[in-house]
Amino acid sequence: MQIGIYTFAETTPDPSTGRTVSAAQRLRDLIEEMELADQVGLDVFRVGEHHRPDFAVSAPAVVLAAGAERTKRIRLTSAATVLFSQIHAIDIAPAPIFAWLEGLHESMAGGVKMFGRMFAGGGVAAADMTTS
Q1: Among 9-13, 105-109, 123-127, which is the least confidently predicted range?
Q2: Is the pLDDT of residue 72 over 60?
Q3: Residue 86 to residue 83: CA distance in whole angstroms
Q4: Distances in whole angstroms, Cα of residue 50 to Cα of each of 45, 55, 78
Q5: pLDDT tens digit sequence for 78-94
Q6: Can you say whether the dihedral through the CA atoms of 102, 23, 79, 50 is positive or negative?
Q7: Alpha helix locations (H) across the chain?
Q8: CA 81 to chain centre
Q9: Is the torsion defined by CA of 109, 112, 114, 118 positive or negative?
């Protein structure tokens, strides 16, 4: 069993202050969170990809590489990838780089979640999509 954290690096308003941090600040905080998770002994830290203004990470490989520079033993990996926006080889290609940077092997998680509005740009109307 592995104990860890996953995040999409939300930039939603803080409920107590109403203040929203910038994406740049959220990314800086995210790298610090990876470092802290490593220091306290968590096994894995997963970062998901999203392409909306309320999420800071649109390129998990870049964020994970930055985290690998500041961590020692924790496994850093992608939590979600938007395959519609990427060629699958691009997502898999960084794996050897992570292994070299962190001295560990990158792992990959799989699953499917679709939002109809994401496919409008690809010529698929939301009304034409069905769920089962």
Answers
A1: 105-109
A2: yes
A3: 5
A4: 17, 6, 11
A5: 887 666 555 544 555 45
A6: negative
A7: 23-39, 60-70, 88-92, 95-102
A8: 8
A9: positive
Which CATH number is 4-128 given? Answer: 3.20.20.30
Which residues have C-beta within 8 Å of that of residue 4, sequence separation ≥ 6?
A: 37, 42, 43, 44, 45, 46, 74, 75
Structure tokens at 130: 């069905």
Residues in the chain: 132
pTM to 2 decimals? 0.65
**Predicted local distance difference test score (pLDDT) of residue 131:** 47
Tokens for 40, please give them: 């306290």
Average confidence score pLDDT of the chain? 75
For residue 72, what are the CA distances in angstroms to 35, 40, 81, 95? Answer: 8, 11, 24, 17
Q: Could you give the CA distance from residue 64 to residue 83 in angstroms, rounded to a whole number?
A: 18
Q: Which two tokens stand for residue 131?
A: 């769920």
